[in-house]
Amino acid sequence: MLESFQNIFKIPELKRRIIFTFALLAVYRVGTHIPTPGIDGVALAEFFKQAQGTLLGFFDMFSGGALLRMTVFALGIMPYISASIIIQLLTVVIPYLERLSKEGEAGRRKITRYTRYGTVGLAAFQSFGISIGLGQMTSPGGAPVVPNPGWGFRIMTVISLTAGTAFIMWIGEQITERGIGNGISLIIFAGIVARMPVATGRSFSLMKTGEISAFVMIFIVILMIAVVAFIIFMERGQRKVPVQYAKRVVGRKMYGGQSTHLPLKVNTAGVIPPIFASSILMFPATIAGFIKNPVMNALAQTFAPGKALYTALYVSLIVFFCYFYTAIQFNPVDVADNLKKYGGYIPGIRPGRKTAEYIDRVLSRITFGGAIYLSLVCVLPSILYRLFNVPFYFGGTGLLIVVGVALDTVTQIETHLVTRHYDGFLKKGKVRGRR
Predict the structure, then answer these.
(1) pTM for this prediction
(2) How many angstroms from the chain centroid is the CA of residue 77?
(3) Do the beta carbons of residue 111 and residue 159 sit within 8 Å?
(4) With pLDDT > 90 as the criterion, what percentage of the chain qualifies?
């Protein structure tokens, strides 16, 4: 494997792509420390100490810590992700967008343009709401977070945060086009991984003070390695449905007749179900942080992470969104029609409606396994905290993103190596990403 890493730098194009990617990620990390004008940083830090377990703390993970510091990159890439999800949902509902999605590269460019417009619109709307909320915030000591609230501060905040999101979107697209890997995913990856040194240092500090024994820490490290291996196994997991193509005679030549398979992923929905489920369940705690009301506080305590009701609802919502998003992403009827159009069929299954029903039945069964897998990974942090008092957040959406992005990026690097007649990272076989 060490030789394979050395081979990376023997390919000029791959070397340029990797350096370009690291350079833009460094620019992104610098931007997460540039504060938004007009905010008292000390008062803001005191106010946001209560943000853990709320939507603010959850979305701060995607911004790499920029949200709770309220920097120019505070909104992060979430407006782009939200706009992409909205466009995908509208593609199923609006016939015009559905036609665009089937028009090839030209249609995809138009959809990308609409996604950019939606990103800017969402960022402007969210930043305006944030500017109003910041103007009303005070620290526990009574100091205002914004010393001079007003329309001047609001306009400046909207311009700063919207421009920051647009710049991050541009960085992500540049990495995708001229770097290595998916730029948007790598930006989220960088934000999550940037917190690892702090968590590691905190863990060693607790070991030195005796709050966590060395035996427990060794067990946790072994468990972390096992969980990562389990995620890799499940993300690569797929059901291969055999497909046979009928022979066709064109002139004096015979074409077709080959056997292949239709890969159905165990986790077709990716990390979208945990994101949706967490957003819904953290909403009461977020509102309670801004509205001091006994009813809201009681509701927030009921839906606090780690509570039995929260865990039960969390798992139920993950299962629901797994099936919901899979139904949007994968249409068995279209797949069956395409197979029939090109002379393909599943052995033992009639082409057309019966094939669609068979694919839907298989997909429903493996999606249930994928939903259980996502649920186990997402409730793991609560279990570790309750049993071992682990001082860092291991598991959940962040871990799924990190492992998935790492798999995809390594797969792209290996593709560059193999196409130029170098060995990949594995001497036997290939690293397979999520797609």
Answers:
(1) 0.77
(2) 10
(3) no
(4) 14
